[in-house]
Design goal:
- The structure is a single chain.
- By secondary structure, the protein is an alpha+beta fold.
- It has 3 domains: about 70 residues, Arc Repressor Mutant, subunit A (Orthogonal Bundle), CATH 1.10.10.200; about 90 residues, 2-Layer Sandwich (Alpha-Beta Plaits); about 70 residues, 2-Layer Sandwich (Alpha-Beta Plaits), CATH 3.30.70.980.
- The chain has 9 helices and 10 strands.
- The strands form 3 sheets. Strands 3-1-2-9 form a 4-stranded antiparallel β-sheet. Strands 5-6-4-7 form a 4-stranded antiparallel β-sheet. Strands 8-10 form a two-stranded parallel ribbon.
- Helix 5 runs antiparallel to helix 8 and helix 6 crosses helix 7.
- The protein is globular and about 45 Å long.
- About 35% of the residues are buried.
């Protein structure tokens, strides 16, 4: 389980799926509102908004919710969200990047710092770990989209930079500024993607042992449960054997 995956096996271990779903909708709504505010409120004219809307659709978010989030961007007196990135180290020396959208910088900073310190990590200054990651586009497809060869061929044709195929999904990496074009070309070949977004790809992975893995996963869970946190990226690699023991 590498650090850029969406922690699928953690999700399966956790109950309260409805609570998770409502928290996910609220995070998706926040991203849609911010994207609509930063550009045009029309997904066809605003690439970031288009990605946010597609991500919401992929999670079966109702159309009314999506439209409400877009409308909120132009409403007077609506919340003003600020994008903040936190960087630090988790247990076992794992580098972690946390991306947040917040209307209260102090609250978010306190929550993120607490999640790190209570789980054997420490928050660093801005830029503390991001030099060990590449900022790239990431497009994911479920395994059902096709076998590894089919997806690799389509990705190559579309201009992607790399493909990683696993049991559950295919991860297709692109240059940051080529994300929209590659996603569009892939849609013609493979159908609609599960998600397409900007991501932090670790340049090297750190293997995490059983003792540190349990604390690390708890830290990631705590961060992801925070309403202000949008995504958590890390350079960790947890083996299937260790995951099985923890499961």
């Amino acid at each position: 389980m590498a650090g850029h995956s969406k922690f699928k096996n953690i999700m399966h271990r956790k109950g309260a799926q409805d609570k998770k779903r409502s928290a996910m909708f609220s995070k998706l709504s926040r991203e849609i509102t911010v994207a609509a505010k930063m550009g045009m409120p029309d997904p066809d004219m605003n690439p970031r908004l288009r990605l946010a809307v597609n991500a919401a659709k992929a999670q079966s978010m109702p159309k009314d919710n999506i439209q409400r989030a877009i409308d909120k961007a132009s409403a007077a007196g609506g919340e003003d969200y600020e994008e903040i990135r936190y960087e630090g180290y988790g247990p076992g020396g794992v580098a972690v990047i946390v991306e947040a959208l917040t209307d209260n910088r102090n609250r978010t900073a306190t929550n993120v710092r607490t999640a790190f310190s209570k789980n054997g990590g420490n928050l660093g200054a801005s830029g503390a770990v991001s030099h060990g990651f590449d900022r790239m586009g990431l497009i994911t497809y479920p395994a059902s989209a096709g076998d590894a060869d089919k997806v690799f061929e389509a990705a190559l044709e579309a201009g992607a930079e790399d493909v990683e195929s696993g049991e559950d999904e295919h991860s297709i990496w692109t240059a940051m500024d080529a994300l929209h074009e590659v996603a569009k070309a892939l849609e013609a070949a493979l159908g609609e993607a599960e998600s397409a977004k900007l991501a932090w790809r670790p340049q090297t992975l750190v293997e995490v042992d059983e003792a540190n893995a349990a604390t690390l996963l708890k830290m990631i869970d705590t961060l992801e449960d925070d309403d202000d946190v949008q995504t958590v990226w890390g350079n960790y690699d947890v083996s299937d054997e260790v995951m099985a023991k923890l499961g």
